[in-house]
Amino acid sequence: MKIASFNINGINGRLPVLLRWLEEARPDAVCLQELKAPQAKFPIEAIRDAGYEAVWSGQKSWNGVAILARGKEPVETRRALPGDDDDEQSRYIEAAVNGILIGCLYLPNGNPAPGAKFDYKLRWCDRLIKHARSLIKLDVPAVLVGDYNIIPTDRDVYKPERWQDDALFRSEVRAKFRSLAKQGWTDALRTLHPDEEIYTFWDYFRNAWGRNAGLRLDHLLLSPVVAPRLVAAEVDRDVRGWDKASDHAPVWIELT
Q: According to UniProt, where does the site described as Important for catalytic activity lie (predicted)?
């Protein structure tokens, strides 16, 4: 089973990129982030024509997450991250696909830090950690997939010294990411590529793509039940170089 994550950065504006990638990569399940479209504007007919069904949570202009499944309907289990009934940002959706419980997330950016946005990010991380712990206790095959907006370690950023005070790299958020590992979640990419330079995001500015000045922000974390089934984990890096591409590249894993 092939499960992918792709921050599409505007699904309607980049629909040709998404459809081309779906046809070439043929993942079984896809988590999309940053739809930047209200619920009614999600291009479900084009997605179905490509052979996928979907569940999604849209939001006008910002955020938005979706789970696509090839040839079948994802069984939605949750539409928002628990812990704050007043949080109206569309950043989490959860569904079962082929016996795997998939949580698709778009964690807040948090800049500028310190500040209110960074405080929101930390609270959101705490809610995610609490929910992740509940999934571990269920003892089911589960994956937490998406744009975490966290650079876990120095090797996940092209020049770590320039990012020390950024909300993506501050010690507080890296500690939150490590707490997920302590629960038993496995970072799929790093498990299979422990020493490689791997990025998933390249800014549109300052020729970041051309210089390979990237960041690793998109992660697929595997619960203890499913981690032994991991056989592959890669970044479809070339997609970032396509015409009108997102600033993220798709990331995927393969499970037996």
A: 218
